[in-house]
Amino acid sequence: MQYRNTLCYSVLAAAIAFSIQAQADNLAITGPGAGADGSGKASGTSYGNVRDADMQSYWQAPANNGQRVSVKWSSPVNASRVVVRELGNAVNSWQLVNNDNGAVLASGNALGSVKTIDFATVNTSKLNLNIVSASSAARIAEFEVYQDGGNTPPDPTDPVDPVEPGPVTSCAASPQGYASLNGGTTGGAGNNAVTVTVTTGAQLVSALQNRDLNRPLTIRVNGTITPANSGGVSKFDIKDMDNVSIIGVGGNALFDGIGIKIFRANNVIIRNLTLRYVNTGDKDAITIEGPASNIWIDHNEVYNSLNVGKDYYDELISGKKDIDNVTVSYNYLHDSWKTSLWGNSDSDNYDRRITFHHNHWYRVNSRLPLFRFGQGHIYNNYYNEIQDTGINSRMGAVIRIENNVFENAKNPIVSFYSSAIGYWDTRGNSFSNITWQDYPSDGVIAGPNVQPTAVLNLPYSFSLLPTAEVKAHVLANAGANKCSF
């Protein structure tokens, strides 16, 4: 693969490239037996107008809400990007759905004149654009579909969503970010909830294995958990269960040499723990393996050591396969070679969505995070002493990187080491004492003049600190034993 040396696209270049190349790669026109249909259409309009490369013709919904227009094929195609072009700005809420299995590939608010939607590659015979709500009958001029993005970069001219102002609360009872979606993340709280306190790993294993699956469970950890006191397990499995919290008591909860795995579980909270030197089980301090959703990892301290070989330990916090709606917030992550991996190979192509906010990343080598496919939102983090690479967006991932502080860092934003690059939506970040070192054979670097190569609009509101306030706030609040839980 031939990479560019620095920033991929300017706004003008993207617009020119799109106008020349788009329709040649548009599967809505060139795919096998390409066609269109929908749930209805206004008089005088046609379904086919969304796939004719003509901005003057359009499909118009017969009503404001609950409408659908679709692109379909006689045999399945691989698709990973849709570009929607609306005449006007009527749409208030939309979903992109794989009609074959009903999976929601993406959702959002406004569409506007150009909306680029990236998602993990799907093999499908029909894609639906659902107009959930609109201020008037929506008019969709084009519904374009591309495989692996075709030759079209994400469109940096796409309209952005507003940030809603409000106080930043470090010890909140509920998460911000993607974990706030799908009904939110409550863990072990709720009706008929059970709370137990453990002081050894064996007690923790028993609490998980013997729980009542019909009742939410909170496990409070008040002691040092080691492989020696854990009854022979190599990790703690939150597996095939929902509605669980593991929360440390004060500054007393230390996982020393053993970690936690969340697997086939939903609605899980991990808070106020210190985890270190994990070299058993999956060798990750905290790892998530899908299917799993609504996971909140908050106010923990997690670390290994740089005084060992690079592969002696694995990740501090990681995730793979089909996980969604995850928030990683207010953690102190330090002294690590391989820090935070999301998607464990270039074929781990799920549309995962992860938010990272108000974390302190210190004295770390790389993967801050490493992110394949899907969508990430990284805001109000403080990075210091990045030794190799920082945020690594790969395989078509789109990451919104917003109001973060990077100090004493090498290559803080890159797309390295994959056959396909990823993209970034950079806004309001601060860079101090940064080294940008270009390795064209590895991929692309974002600097030194960091500019966005994509736009990621978000399906949630959030409170954003001014960049000048981020460092002090994160240093005061990230890590364990900062709140009363």
From TrEMBL:
Q: Which residues form the Pectate lyase domain?
A: 204-412
Looking up InterPro entries in the UniProt record yields: Galactose-bd-like_sf, Pec_lyase, Pectin_lyas_fold, Pectin_lyase_fold/virulence, PEL
This protein's source sits in the domain of life called Bacteria
Signal sequence residues: 1-24
**Chief place where the protein resides:** secreted
Q: Where in the cell is it found?
A: Secreted
Keyword annotations for this protein? Carbohydrate metabolism, Lyase, Polysaccharide degradation, Secreted, Signal
One Pfam family, short name please? Answer: Pectate_lyase_4
Q: Which family does it belong to?
A: Belongs to the polysaccharide lyase 1 family.
> What protein does this entry describe?
Pectate lyase domain-containing protein
Q: Which organism is it from?
A: Rheinheimera aquimaris
